[in-house]
Amino acid sequence: MAQRHVPQWVKSALELGPVIGFFVAYLWVKDEVFTFGGTEYDGFIVATAVFIPVILASMGLLWWLTGHISRMQIVTAVLVVVFGGLTVWLNDDRFIKMKPTMVYSLLGGILAVGLLRNQSYLRVVMGELLPMEQEGWMILTKRMTGFFFLLAISNEIIWRTQSTETWVYFETFVLTGATFVFFIAQAGVIQKYSTAEED
What we know:
Elements: H1 8-29, E1 33-36, E2 39-42, H2 43-66, H3 71-89, H4 94-116, H5 121-126, H6 134-161, H7 164-185, H8 187-193
Antiparallel strand pairs: 1-2
C-alpha cells in the first residue's frame, strides 16, 4: 500500500489515544474488582485487557489511513500484546509494567550497536525528515542512546518501588513529556548541523 499523507493531529491522536485511554480507564476502574470465570481481577488488569485490542485497532487504522507503520510501532504493538497478554493471563501486573523498560532498552541497544560500528541507525530512520551532517547524527544518536537507557532505568525504579497508580501517572505523562522535552532540547544540534538549505 502506498504511503499517504494525513494531518499530523490525526497521527498523534492515533498514537497517543490508546495511552490516554488506558489512563482514563484505569482511573475509572482502579478501585474495582471484577470476577471472570471464578477469578478476581483488579481494575488495573481489566484496563490492560482493554488496552491491548484498542492499541491494535488504533495501529490498524493508522496503517489504513497512511499506508505505513514504522518498525518501532510494530515492535511496540508486539510487546504490548506479549506483556499485556501475560499480565491478563497470569493476573500479574508486573509484566505490563516491564514493557516500557523493554521498549527503551531495545531502542537504546539498537542505537548502541550502530555507534559501535561508527554508524547512526537513527539517520537511517529519520534522515529524509531531518537532513543533517554525519557529525550531527552521531551526536544526536549518542544522546538519544543515553536518553533511552535512562528512561528504561527510570521505569524499572518506579514500577519496582512505587504504587501502581504512581507508575500509571509516570508512564502516561512523565515518559511522554520527557521525550518531548528531550527533542526540543536537541534543537541546537539540529540547527548547527542541518543541511536543509544546502539541499
